[in-house]
Structures are given as C-alpha cells and as structure tokens.
Specification:
The complex is a heterodimer of chains A (288) and B (313).
Chain A: H1 6-11, H2 18-23, H3 26-43, H4 45-48, H5 80-97, H6 100-116, H7 118-132, H8 136-147, H9 151-178, H10 181-188, H11 193-205, H12 207-230, H13 241-248, H14 257-284
Helix pairs in contact in A: 3-5, 3-14, 5-12, 5-14, 6-9, 6-11, 7-9, 8-9, 9-11, 9-12, 10-11, 12-13, 12-14, 13-14
Chain B: H1 3-31, H2 36-41, H3 47-57, H4 63-75, E1 81-82, E2 87-88, H5 89-124, H6 129-142, H7 146-160, H8 173-179, H9 181-208, H10 210-217, H11 222-244, H12 246-259, H13 265-274, H14 278-306, H15 308-312
Antiparallel strand pairs in B: 1-2
Helix pairs in contact in B: 1-14, 5-6, 5-9, 5-14, 6-9, 7-9, 7-12, 9-11, 9-12, 11-14, 12-13, 13-14
Classes of the chains: A mainly alpha (288), B mainly alpha (313).
C-alpha cells in the first residue's frame, strides 16, 4: 500500500503515521490528557485529595468555596473537592463496566448474525426493533426497578439494553466486509467459519464499533450519574458525582456549590471521552 | 420497491416487534420484587383477601394464560388499576401525558431555534473562528447531563434571580410557556447540540454538492440556492434525526420533569417505580414504547415521501 515506485517515493514527503497525524489534532490531544489525568485520579485519589473525603466536621458545615476548601464543604462539613476527587474511581469505573460487557456481547452476536444471516438474523432484527422502541433510560430504570438500585444492578441493566447498539453496528459492518474478496477467498480456502469470523472479518469490521465505544463511555458517565442523581445508581454515602449533586439539591438557594462543582467533573470526563471518540473516528476513517 | 408496499411491510413488521415489546414488559413486571396482591391490599390484609385479589388478577393462572390476559386487556384499553393513584392506569396516564407532550414539543421547538441559525453560521464560516467557537460550545453541551443543566438553570435563574418559577405547571398556554421554559431549555440544550452537528455537516455536504456548485456557476443568487437546495435537504435530515432521537428526547424529558417537579409521565414513571406500583409501571413503559414507535413510523413515512432517494430502496 505504501510501496510506490522509487521515483515517486523519492519525490513524495515521508508518510506520516496515523498517530503523528492524530497528535496534531488539538481535540484528540486534549481528550487524551483529560482521560489520562482522570484515570490517574481514579487510580490514586488519595494522592490528590486535600482531605479525607469522609471526614465529618460539624463546625465547618456548608462553607462557600475558599482557599482552604476550593469547592466548599457539604452539609456534614466534608471537603467537597476531596469528595469529587474520590468519586473519580466510581465514575471512571462506570465508563468501563457499563460498556465493556455490552461491547463484547454485541460484537460476538453482531458478527454471528451478520455472517450466518437466516432465521437467527430475522429474530435478531425483531429483538433490536423491540429494544430500541423503548426510550433507553425508561428501559434501564425499569430493569433497575426489578433488580433493585445499586451500582452492580445498574451495570447489568445498561448491559442488557446497550448490547443491541453494538450488535447492530457490528452486524452491518460484517455484512459490508463480506462483500470483499478476502472474505470470499477464506471460504474458498476452506477455512472454518470460526476462523473467518473471528480472525478475518472481526478485526476488519471492529473499527466503527471501537469509535462508538468511546462515545458510549461518555454516555455511560452521563447515564450513570443521572441514575445516581435519581437514586437508582450508586447509593449514598458513596461519593459519586450524581449522588453528590443530588445531596446538594436541597441547598441550592443557600449552598449552590454543593451541586454545581461535582458537575464540572462530569462535563470534563464526558468531554474527554467524546473528544477521543471524534479523534479516533477521523483517524481510523479509511484514507483514499 | 413501491411506496405502498414499503409502508405495508413496515406496518406488518410492527406486529412481531410489538408482541416482543409486550413480552419484555410482561416479563419485567412479573420479575418485580414483592407480591402485587400485598401491594394492592396492604400489609395487614387477610390471607383470604389476598387470595381473592390474586384470583381476580389471574395470578394463579399459568404464565402463558396471564400473558394472553395482559395482551387482550391491553388491546381493549384496560391497563388495570394504579395502586398509588387508586384510579385506572389509562386515566392516570391520560391526565399526565399532555404535560409531557407539551414539554417535548416545546423542547424540540427551542432546539431548532437554537441549532438552526447557529448551524448555518458555522457551516458558512467553515474552519474560521465562528465555526470553532460554536462547535466547541456545543461539544461541551453534549457532555452535560440534562439533570445538571437543569440544576444550573434552577439555581441561578429560578432560585437566585427569581426570573422563573422553581417548578410546577401553569394553567393557560402562556403560563405553560413560562412555567416550562427552564425544563424545556434543559432538554433543548442537549438536543440542539446533536441537531447542530448534523445540520452543519448536512449544509456543508449540500454546499459542496455538484448541483449546488453548478447553480452557483450559473449565477443563481446565494439566497435562492440556500432556500431551494440547502434548506430542503437540511430539513429532511433534521426531521429524520429528531424522529430517531425521540427515545433520547423522552429520556431527557423524564429527567427534566424530575428536576423541575413537572407533573408529566416521566416523573410519574419514577414515582411508580419507587412505590412499586406495577400496573402503572407496566402502563407507562407501554405508553413510552407506543409513542416511540409511532414517531419512528411517522419519521419513516416523512422520509420516504420527501427524500426521492428513499423511494427506490
């Protein structure tokens, strides 16, 4: 592909690697920096939190932002900044755990129905139609209602609904890839179906799914914190951004910072993931 | 394929889909923890009373018979009695639905008002600073959950400045516009970000298309080109996008109704879930599904009518 005749090779400037191109995109770089720092905060919140996030101080209740407490203190006198930082581990975990199982299930199911088609594909089509007929949030909170509120149940609920979107994307991509010569020659060579699907079709078909995954991680943080806010996700006293915002809700006239500060973390991480998603979409788009 | 044939096929496919939707709702509701008979009669009901209620609800029948009952009752418009509201589910939902309908239409109108002009400005200044500023702002908007936007508006415009009411729902049309302004804006900011993105690239695509280049070369004024070619195409893709994101829109409405205490079906859904009011959960979930599929159908019909490319496929 990059092999050209010696003449034109000498004239053309050296091909830049895709990574080099990506690193010139400010959006992608900013996204990587945000997510890198967020991961750091999630892994070692203790290194960055100025106070113990659970230290209660009744003498310093609902203090406005100051040098000592940049995000103020909450109704129990806990340092809000430390609570927002300690929530990073839960919320970053959400981005991964609410999406990764849906990704795996969706990729496998989508690849199989896209390859075999037939009755399984028809049934799959109805299942997709039925699930996307529900507003995402409505179905997720209905499942959470069955399982009971909590983080693990929230992950199960989001996975039960979310795999469909990955599967649909994967199926379409596998069908498109099967039009290519390499897939047909795999059949001619007598390779097993498993080998054709997982060794040949899947690596070629997975690009759009990976791009969608990044966007979905951003959505997972928004969704997870929304469920936390509604009382169906993480449960207090766990520090989670949605829960923190809900805790501050009763004090919006007197202590607005309690609700508004944790939201900054949601917006930043959401932005980080979607910037990476946009960057990857540009990067992995086949170049003509 | 012929258009009539396409529509017929589309309608026929809705039947198995809806059967499956009913199965999903049925299974979810049967799996809800707690005994529905106790939920209806209360903790102190006698065993005989509970048995009578179970018999009346058909809970002693085999699952398949129960499903058949659920299906036939639903088709006859009977969704049972709400435990929380002590009224027929259909009545409860019918009372709350107009509020959500008003809020949704309001939010869509606001999103178009916000996204439309800005998409044009961004597309016509592609790559220059107005484009960058608009796209950055909307990118941030996309990362803000609806409940957070809602709380910011609530904190500053309602609680601090007192320009708007903190919650509730007015009587007259003007009052409704005023009461629902902030909840609608909270949903609209998110929706408009999606619309703006799509509209901007749709406009750019049309501007770059050969027929528009040709119209330009012919010397047609830009105003005419924008009106005749760009607007029409941009409108088709925007309506399609709006139709397909109706589920997101409803999810947003559910959240915004909770934040602003708007008495619509979204807030009702959460109330029903916290009260374990299973007939109401069942009815509401079904209502949402019906609304979404009707909008999907209308979107399809709209698209197949207006977009000539769709007529052939």
């Amino acid at each position: 592909m990059t092999e050209t005749s010696p003449l034109s090779a000498a004239a053309a400037p050296p091909q830049k690697s895709r990574l080099q191109i990506a690193l010139r995109k400010p959006g992608f770089v900013i996204g990587m920096v945000i997510i890198g720092l967020s991961t750091l905060l999630a892994v070692a919140p203790g290194l960055f939190a100025p106070y113990d996030p659970n230290f209660i101080d009744y003498t310093a209740v609902r203090q406005p932002p100051s040098w000592a407490h940049p995000f103020g203190t909450d109704m129990l006198g806990r340092d809000s900044l430390s609570r927002v930082i300690s929530a990073y581990s839960v919320n970053m975990q959400m981005a991964v755990l609410a999406t990764v199982f849906a990704l795996v299930i969706g990729v496998v199911v989508g690849a199989l129905v896209g390859y075999y088609r037939g009755l399984a594909d028809m049934i799959f089509g109805r299942i997709v139609d039925a699930i996307i007929t529900f507003p995402f949030l409505v179905l997720v909170i209905a499942v959470v209602a069955v399982l009971g509120p909590g983080l693990v149940n929230m992950y199960i609920a989001i996975t039960l609904v979310g795999w469909v979107y990955y599967a649909r994307l994967m199926r379409a991509e596998v069908i498109a890839q099967m039009g290519n010569d390499y897939a047909a020659s795999g059949v001619v060579m007598g390779y097993s179906d498993r080998r054709i699907i997982f060794r040949h079709l899947l690596p070629n078909a997975i690009t759009p799914v990976v791009v969608y995954w990044m966007t979905d991680m951003a959505l997972a943080i928004l969704l997870g914190s929304s469920l936390g806010y509604l009382g169906l996700g993480a449960q207090p006293p766990q520090a989670e951004w949605g829960v923190l915002i809900a805790e501050g809700r009763n004090f919006i006239t007197t202590a607005w910072w309690l609700s508004l500060m944790p939201g900054i973390a949601i917006v930043l991480t959401g932005l980080g993931f979607s910037l990476i998603g946009d960057g990857l979409a540009d990067l992995l788009r086949p170049r003509g | 394929m012929d258009r009539v044939q396409y529509i017929l096929k589309r309608l026929l496919l809705m039947i198995p889909t809806f059967l499956l939707v009913m199965v999903i709702i049925f299974v979810l509701v049967r799996l809800l923890p707690g005994d529905p008979a106790i939920a209806i009669a209360g903790d102190r009901a006698s065993d005989a009373d509970l048995a009578a209620i179970r018999a009346r609800l058909g809970l002693n029948e085999p699952m398949i018979v129960q499903f058949w009952l659920f299906l036939t009752n639903t088709l006859q418009g009977d969704l049972g009695q709400s435990i929380l509201m002590r009224a027929p589910v259909t009545e409860v939902i019918a009372k709350r639905l107009p509020v959500t309908g008003f809020l949704t239409v309001y939010a869509v109108a606001l999103s178009l008002l916000i996204a439309g002009p800005l998409a044009f400005v961004a597309a016509l200044n592609r790559g220059r600073w107005p484009d960058t500023v608009i796209r950055t702002v909307f990118q941030v908007g996309l990362s803000m959950p609806v409940f957070y936007i809602g709380l910011i508006l609530l904190t500053f415009l309602a609680a601090q400045l007192r320009w708007f009411p903190v919650g509730g729902y007015g009587g007259s049309f003007i009052e409704k516009l005023y009461h629902l302004f902030l909840p609608a804006v909270a949903v609209a900011l998110y929706t408009s970000a999606i619309i703006m993105r799509n509209l901007r690239s749709a406009i750019i695509e049309v501007l770059d298309a050969e027929y528009v280049q040709f119209a330009r070369a012919k010397g047609l004024p830009d105003r005419l080109i924008l009106g005749r070619h760009v607007l029409r195409n941009a409108m088709i893709s925007t309506v399609t996008l709006l139709g397909l994101s109706i589920g997101n829109l409803m999810s947003g409405t559910l959240v915004t109704e909770t934040v602003f205490a708007v008495p619509g079906v979204g807030r009702l859904m959460l109330e029903a879930i916290f009260a374990r009011d299973y007939p109401l959960i069942q009815g509401l979930t079904l209502t949402f599904a019906v609304l979404v599929s009707v909008v999907f159908l209308l979107t399809d019909l709209f698209q197949s009518t207006l977009d000539p490319r769709m007529r052939l496929t």
